[in-house]
Amino acid sequence: MVRLTGASQPVNTRERHLRRIPTVIDCHVHLWDPASGFPWIRPGSVHHRAFRIDDLGASGPDAAVTGAILVEASRGDAGETLALRAWRMSRPDLVAGYVGNLHVHGDGGPRRFRALLRDLGDSRPNGMRMGGASWADIPEAAHVLVPELAAAGLVLELNLGSGALRAAAEAATRNPGLTVVVDHLGNPPNLRTDPGEWYRDLERAASVPNVVVKISGLLTQQHGVPPERTAELVRHVVGALGPDRCLIGSDWPICLPRGSRADSLELSCRGLDRLSDDERERALHTNAVRVYGLRG
């Protein structure tokens, strides 16, 4: 029986949500040191400290979580890609893959980006992320690199303040060979408000087969919402896309003001409780291997 320990919820409840699943790949974690950049991290906040690879190892939750996908954290320069690569290579026991920042490679253009991927070889990123308030706010220099991701077989990951699911559907339709991963369920509004537009965007994304949704960020986004209502949100996503187009992530250490990495994974997994054991295994592990092209 798999257990996620280190959080306040009783173990028997965790067992109910993670029954008979041998391994979990946490598809959304970050590492950073504010001394190296990351201007968005506010001094005095719980995030304003270095989170290094050993901190990831110490975060648990337990042996069931066998790997993590490192996701860029807007350091602000192309060196972050190489830093993520170094962590991946130094601790393959913790890090299964990594997603770089596409924006910071835009100024070099497609030719330089292709050269970077060629030089990195087997240690190249598993995907690249674009973010902003909306799709329209993303610089054109980053947009022109998207076809390069499709050609290289890399994932495009999106983290947008609004319209992420709609933008993912449009990008995936224009690039049918590209897998588009939407972070944090497309950043729906807190359920204490009316997320009606988000539900409509989810239907559009569900109609495009190369869009994948990451179930992550719930502790932060849905703070104050009863866990069962959050679970219903996840069930709606899984029902719309199917279990083969869902990934699980903790969003550690962003989640820390609201709970531990184990707490975050537990909340994400609550909405998988009506899946079969095989479907749950795909959502928690197998999909990540396929989507990110992981080795081993």
Q: What does this 3D model show about the protein?
A:
With 296 residues, the protein is of the alpha/beta class. It contains twelve helices and eight strands. Helix 4 links the parallel strand 3 and strand 4. Helix 7 (164-174) runs parallel beside helix 8 and helix 10 crosses helix 11 (261-270). The radius of gyration is 18 Å and the shape is globular. The two termini are 23 Å apart.
Q: By helix and strand content, what is the structural category?
A: alpha/beta
Name the overall outline: globular
Rg, alpha carbons? 18 Å
- Give the overall average pLDDT: 91
Sequence stretches where pLDDT stays below 50 over 5 or more residues: 5-20
The residue fraction in helices comes out at 25-40%
Lateral arrangement of strands in the main beta sheet: 1-2-3-4-5-6-7-8
Task: Give the total of beta strands.
Answer: 8
Strand proportion, as a percent range, falls in: 5-15%
What's the tally of helices? 12
The major beta sheet can be summarized as:
8 strands, parallel
The succession of helices and strands, N to C, reads: HEHEHEHEHHEHEHEHHEHH
> Distance between termini?
23 Å
What descriptors fit this protein?
12 helices; 39% helix; 8-stranded parallel beta sheet; single chain; alpha/beta; 296 residues
Write the topology of this structure.
Blueprint lengths: L10 H7 L6 E6 L23 H6 L6 E7 L7 H12 L4 E7 L7 H12 L6 E6 L7 H4 L2 H7 L2 E6 L3 H11 L5 E3 L13 H11 L4 E5 L2 H4 L5 H15 L4 E3 L12 H10 L6 H16 L4
Parallel strand pairs: 1-2, 2-3, 3-4, 4-5, 5-6, 6-7, 7-8
Describe what is shown at a glance.
This protein has 296 residues and is an alpha/beta fold.
